[in-house]
Amino acid sequence: MRRWVWIVVALVVAVGVGGYSYTRYRLQEEAYTNQIQTGKQALQDRNYSVAETNFTHATRTKVNDTVAQRYLTQTQTYVSGTKALKSRQFTEAQRDFTTVKNTDKGASALISQAKAQLTLITKVKSNRQDYQKQYQQALTLNKANDFTDSNGVIMVMLQDKTFKDSYYKDIYNQALSLRKQNNASLKALTGSTPTITNAAQSANTPNSSTQQRPAVASGSSSANASSSSTSSTAGSLATNGLTATTTSGAATNAQIQATRAELTEQGLNGSNYSDDQIQAILTRANNEHISIAQAAKTGSYSADQIQATRTELSQAGFSSSRYTDAQIQAILQRANTQHLSIAQAAKSMQ
Max Cα separation, the chain? Predict the structure, then answer.
């Protein structure tokens, strides 16, 4: 009898232990599967910290599992590449993303993202070469005392929105530093601090032909303000960061656009000025060593613009014939400075 009792007890214990082991195995498999699935979904969501945490747990839930370890290593390598890219360590980033892309049986989401990052790196490296060439051009002009043309190259760089991305921050800061040096030297020439406004940066590439200027050390506080009359092109000085031509030279289309932008930035309506007026403003600013805005305020309007204003006044119900040319100019000036319409400016002067 005792013998049968012990046999029954042994069977019960065996069944209990077997059931516990199976239950534990099933729970372990469920936890592992959940951790892998959660990690892969996190990769899809680009939540790499969550993915790394779940893959780490999966390697502990099922020790020596190659799938979980492969996903974990792939994720960690991708994160390393991302950090290298943000730090502009492009060689290291390219190496890490290539490793992720070439991982055999790796997470498809990471492989796809790594390919996109490699494409981005190729584009960024190409852009950096272009920006570096432009910066070197501006630096060369600076060393040749062509401060205005150097600023012109920098202006074109700054108008490119891509240039402000963090991938180019080192070159961007160098460009700003060089512009500061140019402005310091230009201040010695013009007696005022030149600036390139955001509006002026929307202009096209300015004329970068070499011009003779007084020899001035970059960043110096004083300079000889006389320029050579034998220059192959018209000599130029900078006024508020724009190239003002002399009476012997004509402004380029880019300079005209930039001047209009500068006038608008200074509270004047640049679109109200014809190309001939812009040319006159640049010449006056250069000859009198005054700002673009000052030159515009002391300038006169063309006969065509005066006639156009008369027509606009007539259409607005005014008797334009009773206004003298001087009064028309006063109306135009008020409309520009106070941001009024021609009719509003005329009415405010009655």
Answer: 135
